[in-house]
Backbone:
């Protein structure tokens, strides 16, 4: 076995001349001058050793599998040397001895049924041709070939079962992930709607509060102006009566004029304050309108950002699918 392992390592180095650390089907053909095997047989050996089907063999896969292959060939050769020629001409199959007079088609069909080949093979012609060729030209290798087929089809069936289990588990995970994404999407939509409503509500309440304060101030100024106007009318009336009266009331009339002038100054000051208040009200209304527009733009930007995030999540979901 140590000699066989050493030989297998030597064969791997012959195949991996570039030092890649693995060998391919083409690399395997370099053993043709070293072994009494045809290119087709080397291809079949490579397929047998490539259990994972990735198209390449690591040093461990090659050395372990090829060592086993060499040991089987040595054991087979020893058995052939020990058995009479008549016995080696008629090998035993895995479960039963086929007589020479039995139909080859029946034997092969029976073998394929026992192996369950129809579940994993679409076309049995290649296997059949190789089986017939071995039966005709190399009957002493037929039992080994059938044992090899048993192992291969068993591994293929196991791989198919594992694939089905993985597909089922993957479908369950995808369904659970889709459900989680849908839940997150619905929560995000509700959060966007809630924040938008709260934002608009706060902005509306603040604007209404500004408007009410300004209206109250304007109403107060208008009432004050109306009082001043009424007072001025009363004073003017009194002044007119005093001017048409007696001379002795001139001093009082002068005082009334002075009072009237003072009231006029108060009226002008109040009118100016009212004008300023109206201007301030207009400025505040414009500011409130501008703030409202800015908030609408902010709501639009927030909504657009959330839409982009939602689109990103949907793209990630598609990618994961």
Residues:
């Amino acid at each position: 076995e140590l000699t066989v392992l050493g030989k297998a390592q030597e064969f791997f180095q012959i195949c991996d001349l570039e030092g890649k650390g693995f060998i391919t089907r083409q690399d395997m053909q370099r053993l043709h001058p070293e072994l009494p095997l045809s290119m087709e047989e080397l291809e079949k050996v490579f397929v047998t050793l490539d259990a994972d089907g990735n198209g390449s063999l690591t040093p461990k896969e090659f050395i372990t599998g090829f060592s086993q292959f060499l040991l089987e060939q040595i054991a087979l050769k020893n058995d052939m040397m020990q058995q009479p020629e008549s016995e080696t001409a008629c090998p035993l199959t895995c479960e039963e001895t086929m007589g020479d007079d039995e139909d080859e088609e029946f034997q092969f069909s029976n073998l394929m049924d026992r192996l369950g080949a129809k579940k994993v093979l679409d076309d049995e012609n290649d296997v059949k041709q190789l089986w017939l060729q071995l039966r005709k030209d190399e009957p002493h290798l037929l039992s080994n070939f059938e044992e090899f087929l048993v192992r291969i089809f068993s591994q293929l069936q196991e791989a198919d079962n594992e694939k089905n289990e993985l597909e089922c588990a993957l479908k369950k995970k995808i369904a659970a992930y889709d459900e989680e994404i849908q839940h997150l999407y619905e929560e995000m939509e509700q959060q966007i709607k809630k924040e938008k409503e709260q934002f608009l509500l706060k902005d509306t309440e603040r604007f209404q509060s500004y408007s009410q304060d300004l209206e109250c101030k304007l109403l107060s100024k208008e009432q004050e102006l109306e009082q001043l106007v009424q007072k001025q009318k009363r004073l003017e009336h009194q002044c007119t009566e005093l001017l048409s009266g007696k001379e002795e009331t001139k001093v009082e009339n002068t005082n009334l004029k002075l009072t009237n002038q003072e009231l006029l100054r108060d009226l002008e000051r109040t009118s100016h304050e009212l004008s300023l208040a109206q201007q301030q009200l207009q400025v505040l209304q414009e500011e409130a309108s501008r703030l409202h527009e800015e908030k609408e733009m902010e709501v639009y930007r927030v909504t657009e950002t959330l839409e982009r995030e939602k689109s990103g999540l949907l793209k990630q979901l598609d990618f994961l699918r």
About this structure: The two ends are 49 Å apart (CA to CA). Residues 84-101 have pLDDT under 50 and may be disordered. The domain at 1-77 is CATH 1.10.238.10 (Recoverin; domain 1).
